[in-house]
Input
Amino acid sequence: MSKDQKQAWLDYSKGITIEHIKKAYNNPTSFQAEFNVVLNKLVAENNLQSAIEIGCEAGISLMLLNKSLSQSAFLDYDHTILEKVEIVCSDLKFKGTKCICEDMFTMNSIPNESYDLAYNSGVIEHYTKDIREKAIKSYTRITKKGGYVIVAYPNHHTFPYRLSYLIGRMLGKKVWPWPKEYKFYDLKDEMKAAGLNYISRTTMDRDTLFKQWVTKYKITRKFFLFLDKFMHFEGYLTVCIAQKPV
Output
């Protein structure tokens, strides 16, 4: 990760308060809620007991999943956001939680094959393919044999989001405050390079498509809803699932 990108996320996290995290947990976004359905289904069907959210930031996704697990690990390189996550987990009386301040490309403190599920959302899109491969190999190392690696990211192959992203970036950080995102369809190559068995790519959360920068206004939202009748846009969030061989 470049120093500029790392600093951008550190700056962004400074504005996240303990109250904000609690509010987000009680009122998750549509993509968090729909992603949680996928995660819960996988956990239940495969009797998974432990999970780590890599690059967790506020950790909302894993908080939503916590009750289905025996062990929940929140990993991020920003110790200040993890301190807030730790307080929230204690206040909400979550069980079996731990916070790990590590770089996701090394995770040196975590032994091989530690978790049934390693996943993240809204992280991998900020990296080129060679760096994505390095990251997913790192995720794979800490995943148990027979366990799962799941990676979710914004879908640049759905027109409303792609247009919002391009125009937002063009208008500057006040409109689009996050670092650059790369456009890729799936992670099949990267997951196979990590020795994983690629299972599927799916998309979800069409609701967010019509709340993006370009589509949040009444007139443009109506226009894109009209286009959707013919183009059947994919959802905002892409989710790729793979399994580590036994």
The CA atoms of residues 121 and 152 lie 4 Å apart. The chain has a mean pLDDT of 95. The chain is about 40% helix and 20% strand.
